[in-house]
Amino acid sequence: MAFGSRPAGSGKHRGSSRLSKKTAGYAGIAAIATTGVVGSLAAPAFAADNHSSNIGMDNGLGAVVVADELAGDISEQADAQHRAAEHAAAKAQAEADAKQKAAEAKRLAEAKAKAEREAAERAAREEERKRLNTFVAPVDGSYVSTQYHAGGGMWSSGSHTGIDFHAASGTSVHAVGVGTVVEAGWGGAYGNNVVIKHNDGTYTQYGHMTSLNVSVGQQVTPGQQIGLSGSTGNSSGPHLHFEARTGSQYGSDIDPIAYLRSHGVEL
Ligand SMILES: [Zn+2]
């Protein structure tokens, strides 16, 4: 090592204790320094400093400078290690951020899918609500063959309590609106008949049918088939007798055309 080049007996003891302390420190540092950089820098640095002692500077200062430069190298290593640690931390943070971002994107996608599902369900419910609130004619593509309150000996009351829809025997008869079947069976002059109570408290009646498809207590929806038309009971021929009523019993009839029109049915 270059320490041996210090001139012997220089008589300058002032800095000796400091030098030995620094040298010891240097030796300790050198012992743990493993890179070639430290060793190669140390010798010229000391040599240059040793040269400066020829112009009267304290030799101890040279060791201090070398130690300081070595300390600077160690510091650079420490800085590099610190930067590497910072880089690793930044990388870990970036990975954590990316993970969090992905989780957030997943959460948003799921929320969006849920919102879309709920919107579709709402639309379906609304569609169903509309369908259930819609009224239809009891026979498709038909027409009124006998008007409400038409006179004649045919009717016990002296006038027609409903309207007749033209319908060949076996034509599908529909519930005009959502409701509950309160009568289904033989109705005397009405033949095989069905009475439905609707949600607004009104009733509709369907008479002279050949066969019935519903029974008392059954819920029906608009357009649902409740039977097939015919000419049972007091009937002059196949048709559908249709009544609208404010109550379930005979005599509470109201104008069926006005009733159906008020529920949006075009006749
Ligand atoms: Zn009739």
Automatic annotation (TrEMBL):
Q: Which residues form a coiled coil?
A: 75-130
SUPFAM superfamilies the UniProt entry points to = Duplicated hybrid motif (SSF51261)
Q: Where is the composition biased (Basic residues)?
A: 11-20
Q: Which InterPro entries match?
A: Cell_wall_metabolism_enzyme, Dup_hybrid_motif, M23ase_b-sheet_dom
According to the entry, every stretch annotated as the M23ase beta-sheet core domain falls at 159-249
Q: Membrane spanning segments where?
A: none
Q: Which domain of life is it from?
A: Bacteria
Annotated spans, Disordered: 1-20
Q: Which CDD domains match?
A: M23_peptidase
Q: Spell out the molecular function terms from Gene Ontology.
A: hydrolase activity
Entry keyword set: Coiled coil, Hydrolase
Protein name per UniProt:
Murein DD-endopeptidase MepM/ murein hydrolase activator NlpD
